[in-house]
Amino acid sequence: MSHNPSQADHPVHSFLASFTAAWNANDLDNVRALLHPDLYAESHRSFTALGSVRGSDAHEAVLSFHVAAPYCAFEVVETRPDGHAAGRFLLNDGGVAELEIPVVLHLVEGLLVQCATFDASDVDDAVALLDEWATA
Hints:
The chain is of the alpha+beta class. The chain is built from four helices and six strands. A hairpin with a 5-residue loop joins strand 4 and strand 5. Residues 1-6 have low confidence and may be disordered.
């Protein structure tokens, strides 16, 4: 993904910078402040029974990645000016094992309103959903 100075002030980039900084600092209060009260989260991961959740349950689902692994980072992979982005959570148990979880994000007025997670092997599905959201 490339950035240029003219993109830096775009609301999507501003949100992602704030979210990434808060997430990677384990500042879950500031992460929670970036989540829409009626956030919709869905999981397409094969080993989870989450399905889809909304509101406070969705907040807890997003924040649960920090509970799942002692070391959890977020990286931006792609941004789109229409309020959509793709990223990945990187979970590490403190040793060598690392799990990558692709995520697509839909942002409105500086808040995360919708997100979906995928298995690392399903990046094509994540990109397809990102494209679908962008054309909806």
